[in-house]
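Weekly modeling sync, notes
Attendees: AB, CL, MP (scribe)

Item 1: holo prediction request
CL wants a bound-state model with guanosine-5'-diphosphate before deciding which constructs to order. AB pointed out that an apo prediction alone won't tell us much about the pocket. Agreed to run with the ligand included and paste results into these notes for async review.

Input as submitted:
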Amino acid sequence: MSTSERTFIAIKPDGVQRGLIGPIISRFEQRGFKLVAIKLVTPPRELLEKHYADLSDKPFFPGLVSYMLSGPICAMIWEGRDVVKTGRAILGATNPLASAPGTIRGDYAIDVGRNVCHGSDSIESAQKEIALWFKEEEIVSYKHSQFDWIYEKP
Ligand code: GDP
Ligand code: MG
């Protein structure tokens, strides 16, 4: 399992407007994952329709797209070992009423249509979603830093 595995995590408009960016980022940081890209965006409808293309025949699809268009989204890429699967575990089950307490959805949400966050469900989806939401130059690398994070001098 690669330590450079990446996943796409988004804080949906309800999460942004409820002030949950900080707590959600904290959970990923505290677990040890690395934030390699972040931006606040109000994407065009076409991007959201592509993002949720697999669900386009579901009755809730139009409502889902309008909800995602209802305000800024905090789009992020997180990196680390097994981050796709573990990211989903940190988010909790799709339906917040089925999400365990201690997960983001289990702590902050009740309705499936207002479930605060998105996370890629497989490595392949993560790659597709990252390419859809981010340009290569928006993603940083920590690997080549010559500086220590904490100490100026050894
Ligand atoms: P996820 O990967 O856990 O986000 O779940 P899905 O990919 O299955 O669905 C995408 C999003 O569509 C979910 O996060 C929900 O916001 C929404 N959604 C899924 N199922 C339902 C549903 O039955 N009703 C409504 N209103 N929204 C749903
Ligand atoms: Mg999904």
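Recorded for review: DSSP finds seven helices and four strands in the chain.
Action items: CL to compare against the apo run; MP to circulate these notes.
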